[in-house]
Amino acid sequence: MDIGSLIFDDMDQIDFTGPFEVLSRLPGSSYRVYGVTGAPVRDIRGLTIVPDAAIADAPPLDVLHVPGGQGVDVLMENEEVLAWLRKQSGNVVLSVCTGALLLGAAGLLTGRRATTHWASVHLLPELGAEVVDQRVVVDGDWVFAAGVTAGIDAALTLAARLHGDEVAQGIQLHMQYAPEPPFDAGTPETAPAVVLEAARADMAAVTRRRLTTIRRIVSGHAHP
Amino acid sequence: MDIGSLIFDDMDQIDFTGPFEVLSRLPGSSYRVYGVTGAPVRDIRGLTIVPDAAIADAPPLDVLHVPGGQGVDVLMENEEVLAWLRKQSGNVVLSVCTGALLLGAAGLLTGRRATTHWASVHLLPELGAEVVDQRVVVDGDWVFAAGVTAGIDAALTLAARLHGDEVAQGIQLHMQYAPEPPFDAGTPETAPAVVLEAARADMAAVTRRRLTTIRRIVSGHAHP
């Protein structure tokens, strides 16, 4: 089984590294990491990761993994990337965080039940998707994770679907994944109001720009 | 504040990338990643990460982060790395997974309350540490995480200690860290017996070799 992740500048690295930790341990599979080119990629906080190859050199993938982060905004209008996503999304797809927006920009979310990062969830219907208010959403052969760390839960869900519960549980045990967050602040519903307000203010400009981009893309689809 | 992670070949990448996701978002701080040399590092599953610099070029760190993984076994007898850890561990230390064994090999765990990956926890007393059966153990200015993904919980705990609860909660909300593992199999106590047995068998050789290494190191300390 060929598993491949798309990585790109200004992604949120754990959208990628969380699922990598899980899926790279699936038996009998090859996991490779693809950049838009073969050059190293810098995540939004400055972590440098080296892809195994450029997307142009990827074989047909059995599992396509698309992480998110601010870098999706540029890629949503990169025709080479969008064409590659269309070509590679015929089997199993794992969408993490705002990776869903990128898949949507490729026209792949029409009619899908999906989710994404809490701050971008209102953008999904613009791309034809139906939002499901769950941390992990399974829609046929597609698995969608909500924001960032939800990718770990989604990847374990996918591992179980592909190889059975015991394989997924073995990976979970290796990862000692029995989380105990020190606070209950991981969702807009549970975060203290002052923390939520600051986060929303922080993201307002990005989210507004993203809506403009999405509307431009969608109107482009309608009137080519 | 200067934050630095040690990265090395055959580490378990999420021991590093989990805390990076949290600590790289602390306000007013610089986070850099150090390799034994400046060369790219390959994690145990093949992910290639580029350090910002070699350990020899690191400034005095305010926060030292040490991940784990099978690569610690070689580093436990690397005098350059051990000397660097001794020099850099005077302020705040975040130990994740079997990073604790490396710190122990440097002679830094004597009398400390600590934890590590569940499969190596019996090795800590050999290095002079007292094992505490918690996912995150705080001992003065040191924070210890149990295995792998416990680094995320420990890093959030550390973020709150350094910058207050609201900063840590803001980072948690950004990461949408409200975990929902699909199984309750993340510890030896909760994993199905067959899964635990397979994991133990898988790790038996590594763990035995590790014990031999540690006894050699400790006897070297005693009779220099």
TrEMBL record, chains A, B:
GO terms for biological process: regulation of DNA-templated transcription. Pfam families: DJ-1_PfpI (PF01965). Residues 6-159 form the DJ-1/PfpI domain. CDD domains: GATase1_PfpI_2. InterPro entries: Class_I_gatase-like, DJ-1/PfpI, INH-QAR. This is Cyclohexyl-isocyanide hydratase.
